[in-house]
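Friendly challenge for the regulars: who can give me the structure tokens for this chain first? No prize, just bragging rights.
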Amino acid sequence: MIALPNTEPSQPIEALMIDLDGTLVDTLGDFDLVLNTMLSEMGLRAVSSHFIKRTIGKGSEHLVHSLLDEVEAPERFDQAWPLYQHHYLALNGTQAHLYPGVLEGLQALRALGLPMACLTNKPLAFALPLLENKGIRCFFRHVFGGDSFERKKPDPLPLQRTCHALQTLPPQTLMVGDSSNDARAARAAGCPVVLMDYGYNHGESVDHVDSDGTLQRLDELPRWLSCWQAAPQQPGH
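First reply, four minutes later:
Bragging rights claimed.
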């Protein structure tokens, strides 16, 4: 049984923006292998997957900086960054998998005729091969990475630009993510937002994050949308 929406819609949903890491694909294994390989080559101690999991989500540069802070080598970013890029490109997708319900959810959303964009803080050069590797690139009209715009989520700019690309207004464009980054960006951009409860969210539950709803599987989203849009629209719309 799906969770009921937390709010009522202001306008019908005409398009979707969907996050990647922690929403569509569980990439923790990739990050664990890549980052600890990088640290080993630098002669630094390994870090736990738990630390990595709660650090994912704010972009690759932030992730590498955080890792170096954790191992007390913050001054070595210029050495670490090219190693990280090299190993991620080589290992991208090898330890990652789709979350249950993702493929079925994307198929159902496409059948509803809703155009979709994948909007992630992952560099585009990493995001595109991962989507291809997992067989889901075909579902997205657009793919935007953390380096596609001047700023990353939780800044609203990537969402505003993605709405423009989808040719929809923010209140008509649902953000689907797994973290407070996605929710904060959506609220600032004026977009509705749904969060998946299985993602990363910096190691914290999404239950108390301001959103329009939380789901356990992406294939619950079409039914959730039906319930949400059956609610009366807010006055003035």
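The mean pLDDT is 94. The chain is about 40% helix and 10% strand. Your move, everyone else.
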